[in-house]
Design brief:
Layout lengths: L1 H23 E7 L5 E7 L4 E6 L10 H9 L3 E5 L21 H13 L4 E7 L4 H8 L7 E5 L13 E7 L11 H10 L4 E6 L14 H13 L2
Parallel strand pairs: 3-4, 3-5, 5-6, 6-7, 7-8
Antiparallel strand pairs: 1-2, 2-4
Helix pairs in contact: 3-4
């Protein structure tokens, strides 16, 4: 009887855990200003929102571990698929790297605001650096904080609004060997305060940092930045 009871308790615990996971994640979609339609995964319910914008070799599902960590820390998290990924679509989707992805990010920010978020921050990785362009395009206060993982804007960095955190590995380089740090440092120097630049050891690019021994530090830097009063 004791063993049976223990087994039943384990089953109940597992069932409750799986139920919690199921309830914590919701699939949503919303339109963009330029006629696109974005699909996303929503984690948690909170007054502080965070949009996760993936890199070119990733998708919304790639953020699941980080999204759950942020949700457990008290954020409402929206991980999007950019147009051309998954079911998301919109003008330019055949070549997402040159598509106006800023509208996907802004649509996500505005979705969270419409559904109850008081503040919204954005974490953009590599191609997800379109978040910087979204910040330039946004209304004052629309994007509270911006985290750029190995990303920058080719626009006017001095027009990026809100608090900014840049994170990059020192030896992160493009396929042709061009180091990304100089581009990111140039963006950082041109942005206005408040801002922070974190340069890590190694060469992992953007979301690939989460598969290295730097993963814990990257997540801690992001959490601390998003949680600061």
């Amino acid at each position: 009887m004791v063993l049976c009871g223990a087994s039943s308790f384990r089953v109940l615990t597992v069932t409750l855990f799986l139920t919690r996971i199921t309830v914590a994640q919701e699939h949503v979609s919303f339109p963009t200003e330029d006629g696109g339609l974005i699909y996303a995964d929503l984690y948690g319910k909170a007054a502080r929102g965070v949009v996760l914008a993936h890199g070119g070799r990733f998708n919304k599902e790639s953020w699941e571990k980080q999204a759950r960590t942020l949700a457990e820390a008290g954020f409402c998290v929206l991980a999007i698929d950019f147009r051309g990924y998954g079911q998301s679509r919109g003008p330019g989707q055949a070549d997402p790297l040159s598509a106006p992805l800023k509208w996907d990010v802004l649509a996500a920010v505005r979705y969270l605001k419409r559904t109850g978020a008081k503040t919204v921050s954005v974490v953009g990785a590599s191609m997800g650096g379109a978040a910087a362009d979204a910040s330039i395009e946004s209304e004052p206060g629309e994007i509270d904080r911006l985290v750029l993982l190995a990303a920058w804007t080719d626009g006017a960095p001095e027009k990026i609004k809100g608090r900014k955190l840049f994170i990059v590995a020192r030896d992160d380089a493009s396929g042709d060997g061009d180091l990304r740090l100089p581009h990111i440092r140039s963006n950082y120097e041109k942005t206005v305060e408040p801002k922070k630049l974190v340069v890590l050891d190694g060469s992992a690019h953007a979301q690939f940092l989460f598969a290295t021994d730097q993963a814990e530090r990257v997540m801690r830097e992001i959490l601390n930045f998003l949680s600061e009063p």
